[in-house]
Amino acid sequence: MPMKKLVLDMDSSVSETYGRQEGTAYYGHFGCTCYHPLFCFNQFGDVESALLREGNVHSANDWRTVLEPIVARYRERDIPHYFRRDAAFANPEIYGYLEAEHFQYVIRLPANDVLHREIEHLLTRPVGRPPRSPIVLYQEFQYQAAAWNHKRRVNAKVEWHHRELFPRVDNQVRLQLFAHAHNLGNFFRQAALLKSVRHWTMTSLREKVIKIGAKVVCHARYVIFQMAEVAVSQELFAAILGKIRRLRLLVEASG
Question: Among 19, 99, 173, 215, fewest CB within 10 Å belongs to which?
Answer without folding.
Answer: 19
